[in-house]
Design a protein that fits this description.
The chain is built from four helices and three strands; from the N terminus they run βαββααα. By secondary structure, it is α+β, with helices and mostly antiparallel strands. It has one domain. The longest helix is centred in the C-terminal third of the chain and has 31 residues. The radius of gyration is 18 Å and the shape is extended. The N terminus is likely disordered.
């Protein structure tokens, strides 16, 4: 299967099997130990939050079963992330100084 695709479509990618990469790109995948990648993106029209979940180094060759499981799990993971982000935003709005003081500068940057 191919790495590129539409939002909401599970993507399965095995760098050594799928021949869409050039040698330099393939070297980068190996350098970062990226193999057997299963990924799925989800977006929420209400909150505007888009999440992208990517799993690398799956222990077996990727199959339609992996795509089916990921298609079932990602909407639940996305909903949980929406709840967490929403709760954090409410906390920051209620007491921005107290929440921000508990975070490192990098955590504040990521949260922003």
């Amino acid at each position: 299967m191919r790495l590129s695709g539409a939002m909401g479509t599970v993507q399965l990618f095995e760098p050594d099997r799928d021949t869409v990469l050039f040698t330099l790109e393939l070297q980068q995948f190996h350098h970062h130990e990226l193999s057997n990648i299963a990924a799925h993106a989800q977006s929420c029209a209400i909150t505007g939050l888009t999440s992208y979940f990517s799993f690398s180094q799956m222990p077996e060759p990727l199959s339609a079963r992996h795509a089916s499981v990921l298609a079932l799990l990602v909407p639940h993971m996305h909903a949980a992330l929406n709840r967490i982000v929403g709760a954090e935003q409410e906390q920051i709005a209620a007491a921005p100084d107290s929440v921000a003081s508990n975070l490192t500068p990098r955590e504040r940057e990521v949260l922003d």
